[in-house]
Amino acid sequence: MIKDYAEIKKAICFDIGGTLLENKNNNSLIEKLINICEGCEYSEIVFAAKESFMKSKTSLVVASKYFCEFLHLDETIYIKVYETLKNHRSESIIFVEVLEVLKFLKARGYILLAISNNYFWNTNQVFNNNLSEYFDYVLYSYECNSVKPDKKIFKEMEYLTELRSKEILLVGDSWTSDVVGAKKAGWDIIYINRDLHHKCMIHEKSVLVISNLKELYNYL
Questions:
Q1: Angle 8-184-180 (CA atoms, 0-180°, nearest 5)?
Q2: How many domains does the chain have?
Q3: Among 120, 162, 156, CA closest to 139
Q4: Domain of residue 69, residue span
Q5: What are 90-139's pLDDT values in tens digits?
């Protein structure tokens, strides 16, 4: 399936983690929480983390309590959760082709956007990686009380940019957050799967799949 988006798209919107930045942490925050929250299902912990840490900007104390209340965990676990959040550091590096691609798109006149499900304390992902100069708008989940794949966060970006859904192309690496969310919002999506040997079970023929951001040159 070949699509030419050059004539119809005004803006390219990128997911951040996994698309622009590679997470270098050996143990993610979710893995640390799993070790603490014995007896809780993985899906429950992921959902509680999204609700507690990504939807609003609060304090670590409040977020830790909300997380434990959500999972019906006692006070001793709350202390462990708080200490885990306080000591957790997200480490990431820019994928090797990112700067070249962003420069190319800027030169072509595209509005560049970024949209991310992000922990409220991790506010400088773009700034710390010297990417801020390339982006016209960056929207984090905690700024609009919505996490992908909720339709609301995509519509908030449309409101901020005064763009219509058909004028924005999303590039993201998560099927459940990016592909599903884009479809809900009426956005076109290019799905980046950097390890094509690890095939997504739910690939659809209607979704364009790439393994490197340089492949965007073929469509823009």
A1: 100
A2: 2
A3: 156
A4: 29-87
A5: 788 899 999 999 999 999 999 999 999 999 987 766 666 678 899 999 99
